[in-house]
Structure formats: C-alpha cells, structure tokens
Amino acid sequence: MGCRLVAKWVLIRGQKRGGKMEWDSGSDMSMEEEDHMQICEDEGFLMNDGGPVPIAMDNLLHSTPCGFAVTDALEPDQPIIYVNAVFEYVTGYKAEEILGRNCRFLQYRGPFAQRRHPLVDSMVVSEIRRCLDEGVEFQGELLNFRKDGTPLMNRLRLTPIHGDDGIITHIIGIQLFTEANIDLGPMPLPFYKEAITRCADRSLSDPFLYRPAAIGQGHFCREICGIFQLSDEVLAQKILSRLTPRDVASVGSVCKRLYQLTKNEDLWRMVCQNAWGSETTRVLETVPGAKRLGWGRLARELTTLEAAAWRKLTVGGAVEPSRCNFSACAVGNRLVLFGGEGVNMQPMNDTFVLDLSAANPEWRHVNVSSPPPGRWGHTLSCLNGSWLVVFGGCGRQGLLNDVFILDLDAQQPTWREVAGSAPPLPRSWHSSCTLDGTKLVVSGGCADSGVLLSDTFLLDLTMEKPIWKEIPVSWTPPSRLGHSLTVYGGRKILMFGGLAKSGPLRLRSSDVYTIDLSEEEPKWRYLTGSGMPGAGNPGGKAPPPRLDHVAVSLPGGRVLIFGGSVAGLHSASQLYLLDPTEEKPTWRILNVPGQQPRFAWGHSTCVVGGTRALVLGGHTGEEWILNELHELSLASKHGLD
Questions:
Q1: Rounded to whole angstroms, how far apart are CA atoms 205 and 198?
Q2: Measuring CA to CA, how many Å separate 213 from each of 156, 210, 220, 222, 224?
Q3: Mean pLDDT for the stretch of residues 10-24
Q4: 85 or 452, which is more confident?
Q5: d(Cα 9, Cα 303) in Å, to the nearest integer?
Q6: What mean pLDDT is predicted for residues 596-612?
Q7: Residue 169 CA from chain centroid, whole number
Q8: Which residues, including other chains, have CB under 8 Å from residue 504's CB and lie 6 or more apart?
Q9: Cβ(501)–Cβ(452) under 8 Å?
Q10: Pairing of strands 362-365, 316-317
Q11: What are phi and psi of 278, to 5 degrees?
C-alpha cells in the first residue's frame, strides 16, 4: 500500500473492497456523503499534486493551498498512501520517502531523529489518538518539523472516512502550515547548513505558507480562490483537462462543484488524450467494452492498475511445425507470429494470425506471396496500423540485415523487400521498436563472430527511398543482445537488461538507459541499475539481471518487465514496474492475482488495445507452448468482455 502508484484515488469515496481501494467515478454520492468529505466551503480551493497547470498559480490563487494526506486505516499503523505537492514542498519530504509510513515522523526533528521532539504538545498527541480510536474528527494545532529540522505550526484537521459497512477505511488529513517562531538551536551538520539555506531562501511571498487572514469562526479554510470565478467550461477545458488523471481525481475531492465537473466523461477523454497521447486514446476507443467501462473508470484502472489480473486462455488451431525463437506482435486485436527456429535449427518463414475478437480464437496459417527468407532471432513490428515489418535475424546463409513489409489488411497480403540504403550490420538477437507509427528503430544485437553491438539505427518507412540513419551519440550503453526497447512519452526510448559486455565478460544486466529522439542532439542517459530509494517499498529494488525478457509499455509512460533468462533462484515470473518520468524512478513489484505463466523464459508478448498484454510461448524444458496464452488484463473484465 506504500507507493504513489497504488494510492487508489480514495479521495472520492473511502471504500475498501477485496483488499483494493476504489475510486468510483461512476457512483453517486448523497448530499450527506459529499458534505462529510467536503474539505472547504462550497467554493473551496484547488489542490494540484504536481500536475502541469497551464496558467500561473499566482493569478489563480488568492489564498494558500493546504497540505493534503490520506492514510489507510485498515493497515497496521495507518500508513500514508497519498500526499499532495503542497505537503511535499512545505515539509521537504518527497512522497517516495514517506509513503508507507505513519504521519508521526513530522513530530521528529529531522529524518534521523529517533523520538518525538520534547516541545511537541503531548496533550494534543493524546487527543489525536483518542479521536482516531473513537472515529471522530480532530481539529487542532501541533508543532511539526521540516526535513531540514526547521519548525512549523500545523493547523491540522483529521477526518475519518467510513465504508459502506461503517468501518473506518481511511483518514484524510488537511494541514495549514505556518512558520513557528521558536529558537531550537542548531541542527547537527549537514542539516544545519541545509536549514540555514532553506530559511534564507524563504520569503513572505512563499506560496505554500499560510498567514492568518480571513478565516471565520468555526470554519477551516474558508478563503475563496480566484479559480472558482472561472466558468465550468474554462475550468474543464483549460485547466482540468491539462492535469494528469491522478491530479484530476484529487481535485474532484475538493468540493461539490469540482466533484460534479470531474464526473464528466468528455472531460476524462480529454484528460486521457493529453496525458497518454492521441494515438493511445484512439486505440483505447476501439477496445470492445471500453465505452461501457467509461473514460473515468478506464483512467483510474490504467493508472492504479487496481484491476490488473492474469488469466489463462486456451486457443484452437496450431502453429506447425513447432518452433522457438519466433517473433510476434499485435495488429489491432490480432496476434501475428512470423518465422522462428524449427527442428534441427531450421529457419522458418511462415506467418500465422490469431484473431482475438473471434468467438473461438484459433491460429490460422496465412497464405502470403513472396515470403522473406526463413530466419530466427529477428524482430517483428507493427507500423501504420496494419503493416508488419521484419528486420534481421539468422537465416540459412548466416546473419541478415534486410527489411520486409506486409500489409495484413491487403486483399492479397504480399511481403515486399524494402531496399533501404546504408543499412546497419547484419545481426540477430537485437531489439527494435517503432516511433510515430512510421519509423523503425533497431538497437544492438550480435554480429558475425559473436561480436556484440551498441549502435542504434532509424529507418523512416514512409519515404519513397528509405535511408537508414545511425543516431549519432557521444556515448552508448555497453554492447548487448537480448535486451528490450520500449517507447514512452512520444519519442523517448527506454532500454533494459540484456546480455551486456563488461570488460572481457558478458553478464546479464538490469541496467536502464533512456534516450530522447526529439532532442537535436540525442544522448543516452543512465537511469538506474540498482535499487532506488523508497521507504518501506518492497519494490524498491531492481529486477534481477536478465535477457530475453519482455517489456510492455503502459499508458502514462510506465514500463512493465516480465520473464526472461534469470540466473540463480530468482523468479522470472514476477512483474516489475518502472515509471521513467518520475523525478526519482523507482522499481516496484506488481502483485497481480490470477493464473500467471508457469514458464517465464522464451516468451513473446504483445499489447492488445492498450488494455491487455498477451504472453505466448514459454519453454517447458521439452516443448514450446503456443496454444496456451496468458492474458494480463489491465482493466475490469466485466467492462471489456
């Protein structure tokens, strides 16, 4: 429960069902319920948790936003599961440092203090405990401390949230911070220097420090924000639509007006399109049942992954002769498999299609004209909605660097070779991905004599005479094969794992590198190769080093890693999640219910419709399984079936 990813949007309704908190954007709240969760008076204030607000905050807010935190009352010691940007800014603690912890750390002076500071009023602390035990609201003031040790007065309000059964499921905390004029003496170095610098930088114009003004008797945060003078249309189209799904859910908890605005499906579609891109949104619109699920519900489930589940599918037909080292990709709701290594290392060149939208899906062989030479260790990608692109691999005559395209929707599908000039070296076990639906990117692999490669090439297949272009960089990650490339954030690429060169050795890797091809001079950047900080987070460690794994790109830029060849006793069946867009990217373990694949090596994975990943293949030690598929569904099946 201790990571930002699974905050589960408790701010609309604090419920816990089957161990998963629920943000029910489609449910109706009674007036009594709305009044109970209402934070401010009818107009309230806007809380933005780091999302991009398109106009200056100073022009919108005539008053100060509050810190906002949510704790899980059903977990031991009531851990924090959500904080907003104001809380982070004022206290100096990043969310990843405090999620999963009890809020009492603010009563300690600095991150290494072992006990509550003696100036913290123990009577107030006892009153907080009493209110929490009795399930009643608390209001009062308490001395707190920033991470650098400087004191703050916290005008605190704690509100319990009850589930349908009357049990308290969450506690919402609102903090109005003010400077505390208390001389506590110096902090031990180096925190004393940090505190001096921080205090010197603070001025009376600090937007997140409250100064007493017009707060009426008996009210908490009665000041009116300028933002509420705007029309609903401007609020929705110019402001809310620019926020992330997570922030929109938070904003919807502020007051009745914003709650009603955030129930609008058209708004949620704009939010998803701005956050995930028009291409992802277009794909999601084609998913059967997506309209029934609704954009608000879809945004929540694809953001929190609360509905993610494995299930096993058995399909008909056959891929014969049997093979391994094939390549597969998704074309709409169809899975396409090409080539592979048959018996006695026989290179295959046949094409099979599995239509998942059929009532009884089954593999069928596609009769195509002019098939490419047989191969294995190649890549198969989808471009332009229905084009299949094959590159490289190992054939009868050795390594290949040719490119073939097939339009799967053509009346008579025909493979045709694309003679791109200045091609990369022939290779196998490389990795590839696609950009903008028109460009093929190829990286690394194994060349003749077993030489590992570290280059990256791009081929624009919309050109009349395509030209291979090597992406010039000043530094490249170590040479490798069996790694993965994943596109996120438009034109950014994430490289993970593989068998990498390390001096005279070749070792499995868990390194992560990124490159942004939208930059004038793209540069590879080393993101992480070891555990990232994440207090109380069991997923803070990187996946065990591996190769021949699969990587799945999720809406919002996150990357899911599964399977592969892993040394030792580590399980390759575990799912790992990384968000490279975070300030401090942190690996997280994703525990998903259902029947996961038993064999985690030798897979191929395709993302279908943006809401599910299909895992096919897998080696049992004796044979390769292609009639047993495992589906990782990312959204509720009752909405998508």
A1: 14
A2: 17, 9, 12, 10, 12
A3: 34
A4: 452
A5: 10
A6: 66
A7: 25
A8: none
A9: yes
A10: parallel
A11: -70, -30
